[in-house]
Write a structure and sequence with these properties.
Number of helices: 8
Distance between the termini: 39 Å
Oligomer: single chain
Helix content: 40-55%
Largest sheet: 3 strands, parallel
Strand content: 5-15%
Structural class: alpha/beta
Order of helices and strands: HHEHEHEHHEHHE
Strand order of the largest sheet: 2-1-3
Length: 175
């Protein structure tokens, strides 16, 4: 991607300001059109992870139809760098430390294009979705993971390097 002129998002913003998305779209489309069909593969960690939505959103915003023009595959994070290196996929979206592994200590096979906070500031990074019928039928079972998630968030927020806001970034959603 780098060889085709794609650069980190912040560079597009610095250079083009309000026209950053249009400029990125031109570069992304130029890169994408030169790829063979088997070279149009992006990876995410889960089909239900927010990262897949980010990949599809950014692609669509840049003018590449994410439902028709490339495949999104599921790859465990520890295998992502190797899969990029051997050409099995061209890009992936994942949380730290996996994105940094493609940059440092791995012969610079990749670069961070955009961080999720630049796509959607304050997004719900983790989500527990439960059907209301499940809650009604198994209230104790439902309560257990909710308590565990709240406790984990509170513990994270107590670390000196973490903000208290960490505890409130986990959203519970009742379907």
């Amino acid at each position: 991607m780098w060889d085709f002129g794609l650069r980190p998002w912040y560079e597009y913003q610095e250079k083009y300001g309000d026209g950053a998305l249009e400029a990125f779209g031109r570069d992304f489309r130029g890169y994408f059109d030169k790829q063979p069909p088997e070279g149009k593969v992006w990876a995410v960690v889960l089909s239900s992870a927010i990262y897949e939505y980010f990949v599809r959103y950014v692609s669509a915003a840049a003018g590449v139809d994410p439902l028709k023009e490339f495949r999104a595959i599921i790859v465990p994070p520890p295998q992502m760098v190797t899969n990029v290196r051997i050409g099995a996929m061209q890009a992936y979206m994942v949380a730290e430390p996996w994105n940094t592994r493609a940059i440092t200590g791995n012969e610079n096979i990749g670069f961070t294009f955009v961080q999720s906070k630049e796509v959607w500031l304050g997004h719900p990074d983790r989500l527990l979705g439960v059907m209301e019928s499940f809650i009604d039928k198994y209230p104790k079972t439902y309560r257990s993971p909710v308590k565990a998630m709240i406790e984990a968030c509170l513990q994270q927020s107590r670390k000196p390097s973490r903000s208290r806001r960490t505890a409130y970034r986990t959203f519970l959603y009742r379907c």
